[in-house]
């Protein structure tokens, strides 16, 4: 069910977007401010390059390190990313691996995760030589997300993938927010909505 609502707002379009047609630039800013592409999936694997998430019907969702809550780090022994909710020192904030395992909030394989869609990536499969067969312009080792053009060990490209983020309020493992209730906060300039708090 949908509820039709009229909203009046002032949308700021930065000069760097003036190269786009006005209607497109304004629509992009409205979508950036009001679109709610929040999804829930399950972590299927983790590498130092990204967390891979599946929604059952779609498996090519990646959350790269720069879109994790800060401070985060990859634990090579556990083969999982973790977040430090409240670092005990500036040294831990700078290098979360200095923390004790019991202080870490791990993003383990199999856990349900809430994330926001940051971008969609399409790759048009064109006929031609495979990667590594001397195609001009190939640059092996470039790319930060598995399946990117030129990523290490990549021989094929995913036709479509989603880049997600958990670097915001209410995002991350569902277990992190269990028992939290929605409490209204004063709306600021950024238009914050609700903030979960522990009971």
UniProtKB/TrEMBL annotation:
Q: Which Pfam families match?
A: RNA_pol_Rbc25
Q: Which UniProt keywords apply?
A: DNA-directed RNA polymerase, Transcription
Q: Say if the entry is tagged with keyword Aminoacyl-tRNA synthetase.
A: no
GO CC annotation: RNA polymerase III complex
Note the superkingdom of the native organism: Eukaryota
> Could you tell me where this protein is found in the cell?
Nucleus
Per its UniProt record, what SUPFAM superfamilies does this chain match?
A: N-terminal, heterodimerisation domain of RBP7 (RpoE), Nucleic acid-binding proteins
Family membership? Belongs to the eukaryotic RPB7/RPC8 RNA polymerase subunit family.
Name of the molecule in the record: DNA-directed RNA polymerase III complex subunit Rpc25
What is the taxonomic lineage of the source species? Eukaryota, Fungi, Dikarya, Basidiomycota, Ustilaginomycotina
Q: Which gene encodes it?
A: rpc25
């Amino acid at each position: 069910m949908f509820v039709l609502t009229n909203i009046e707002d002032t949308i700021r379009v930065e000069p760097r977007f003036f190269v786009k047609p006005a209607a497109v630039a304004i629509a992009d800013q409205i979508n950036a401010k009001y679109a709610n592409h929040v999804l829930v999936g399950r972590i299927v694997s983790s590498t130092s390059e990204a967390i891979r998430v599946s929604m059952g019907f779609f498996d090519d969702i990646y959350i790269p390190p720069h879109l994790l809550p800060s401070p985060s780090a990859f634990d090579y022994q556990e083969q999982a990313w973790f977040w430090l909710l409240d670092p005990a020192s500036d040294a831990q904030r700078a290098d979360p691996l200095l923390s004790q395992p019991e202080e870490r909030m791990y993003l383990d394989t199999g856990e349900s995760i809430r994330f926001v869609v940051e971008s969609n990536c399409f790759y048009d499969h064109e006929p031609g030589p495979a990667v590594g067969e001397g195609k001009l312009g190939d640059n092996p080792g470039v790319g930060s997300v598995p399946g990117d053009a030129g990523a290490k060990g990549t021989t094929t490209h995913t036709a479509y993938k989603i880049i997600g983020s958990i670097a915001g309020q209410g995002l991350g493992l569902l277990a992190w927010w269990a028992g939290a209730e929605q409490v209204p906060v004063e709306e600021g300039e950024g238009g914050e909505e609700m903030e979960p708090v522990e009971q």
